Amino acid sequence: MRTGFSGEVAGYYARHRRGYPPEVIDAIGRTFGLGGQDVVVDLGCGTGQLSVPLAARVGTLVGVDPAPDMLTRARHAARDAGRDNTIWLLGDDRNLPALGPLVGDRRLAALTVAVAIHFMDRDLLFRRARTLLRAGGGVAVVTNGTPLWLQDTEWSPVLRGCLQRLVGRPVTAACQTDEAGRRRNRDALAAAGYRYLESSVRYAAPLTVEDMVGGVFSAMSADQLPAPARRAAFADEVRTALDGRDAVTEQVEVWLQFGLLDRAERFGADR
Ligand SMILES: C[S@@+](CC[C@H](N)C(=O)[O-])C[C@H]1O[C@@H](n2cnc3c(N)ncnc32)[C@H](O)[C@@H]1O
Asked: How many angstroms does the Cα of residue 241 sit away from the middle of ligand 1?
């Protein structure tokens, strides 16, 4: 049974996960010189948090994800934003070569992977992507900050304590949002022959307890979700542990790691 990112989890994801600020979309657009003729694939697109704003900068945005419930949310988000230049495909990283005949030789301007690279065989993916990308295009690996329960703030350990009581074990998974995870991306992009660039976008933003708790549930699999009454009790526990506060301030750091194909590159050999 597939339980990852399905059912209610997809709903929590769409409603409570932070999207990406315009600076992130700008950086991707600038790096690959994106424009109205370009086709971009957002692999592991989830509910379209990155894909939908990125679609405003390109000709066609192809969102690919193995979770049907996430894709449906992405499609609705695109419709609500009036982004008719999007198409949503059920698939995963292993299916990337199947896009070749659709986009034509070297016609892809960029492949983006946001908070999903830890699910993929990145070495194979980056090598295969080269055969689809146009000169001056490339791969963008995006990380949307450290998980809420592992941040270096006064409220994050409080949340972690509540979460550990809920699940009955220590919670340590960082989903490769840390330096070690970024190093793996950097090394794999370099090994696949891309020119490597990186940058980050930092900002402070309010985080409501509702979004904090919804964000936690969005990171669980459907079969891990507590019963609805226990979820409500968890939200109360978090609020009480935060001295009754309804919101805190989150310091968000979005990392962008780019693998670039040089503008002069002409149908370079696959590696
Ligand atoms: C944490 S979500 C990120 C969603 C979105 N990119 C964002 O930034 O909000 C991870 C997504 O990766 C998808 N995923 C999991 N395994 C995958 C794979 N092997 N290939 C492509 N996507 C995958 C999941 O279904 C999920 O939608």
From this structure: 31
